[in-house]
Structure formats: structure tokens, C-alpha cells
Specification:
mainly alpha
Length: 157
């Protein structure tokens, strides 16, 4: 993994990270099929992770506290099941006014500020994820597609 990727995820804005990914896609001449999917997928994930980074409330898919936003943490959330879980975790946290489902200290979770779920919600709903009932599954083909997208992103970073 490139050193620049770590610095990018550590401190860059959402738009800066997305611009780097989009530019890397152009220089690699990836198929338009993948190019049209990588940026929205990345934006959906980062629309949650960047605000959590700024609030010093990052956590991994198992709910464990994480100090920095790294490419590895980003890839952990690339898993479609994890991404769905993240959406419901933030949705429930927004409703409660505190960060839920993590092992972060209670005092940290109490400082939680609502995170806009628009980008992530739109992305997941376009890929037939039921945003009302967390226990409902989605088509396996969507899971497989997102594994492919994740592999393209890994090759860029």
C-alpha cells in the first residue's frame, strides 16, 4: 500500500479522497463498468467514515475503537454486509443521539453528533438493501459485485 494512501485517509477531506480515487481510475484505464461503481461506493463509505474520523469516533466492523482512518479500515467497511451494518448503526445512533454498537468509551459515545446518511442510504437502496428492516437479506449478486469493486479500489491504493 502506498504511503500516500495512509496520509490521504488520515487527514484529507471526503472530496479529496474521492478525487484521488477518480484520478487513479483514469490513469489505470479501468473498464467503465468498474469506474462507474468505484466512486459512488467509496463516497457512500467515506460519507460516514470521514465524519467519524473528525469526531475521533472511528470503529471497525466488530465495533472496536480505531485511532485513525487507514486504507485497511476503509477496506474492512468495503464488505457489503459490513456496510449495511454501518448504515443501521449510524441510523440507530442518529435516533438515540449517541454512538451505539461500539466498544468506545461511553463518554466518547455521548459526544456523538448526527451523521448525514443520505449518500450511504441512496447507494444501498440502489442496490436493493432494505433500509427499514436490518434482518432482511440482499441478493448474493450484489455482494459479489461489491467484492469486485473492493478489489479494484485495492489495486488503486
Amino acid at each position: 500500500m502506498k504511503k500516500e494512501s495512509y496520509e490521504l485517509f488520515k487527514s484529507a477531506s471526503l472530496d479529496e479522497i474521492i478525487d484521488v480515487l477518480a484520478n487513479e481510475l483514469k490513469t489505470r484505464n479501468e473498464s467503465p463498468f468498474w469506474s462507474d461503481k468505484v466512486v459512488p461506493f467509496s463516497r457512500a463509505i467515506l460519507s460516514i467514515l470521514v465524519p467519524l474520523r473528525e469526531s475521533k469516533m472511528l470503529f471497525d466492523p466488530e465495533g472496536k475503537a480505531v485511532k485513525e482512518l487507514t486504507p485497511e479500515l476503509f477496506f474492512d467497511w468495503n464488505d457489503f454486509v459490513s456496510l449495511k451494518t454501518l448504515a443501521f448503526t449510524i441510523q440507530k445512533s442518529n435516533a438515540e443521539g449517541k454512538l451505539l454498537r461500539t466498544s468506545l468509551p461511553i463518554s466518547t459515545c455521548q459526544r456523538y453528533k448526527e451523521i448525514d446518511l443520505t449518500s450511504l442510504g441512496e447507494y444501498l437502496s440502489r442496490h436493493t438493501v432494505n433500509l427499514e428492516n436490518e434482518s432482511l437479506d440482499f441478493p448474493i449478486s450484489n455482494y459479489n459485485l461489491h467484492q469486485g469493486i473492493s478489489n479494484v479500489i485495492k489495486s488503486l491504493l
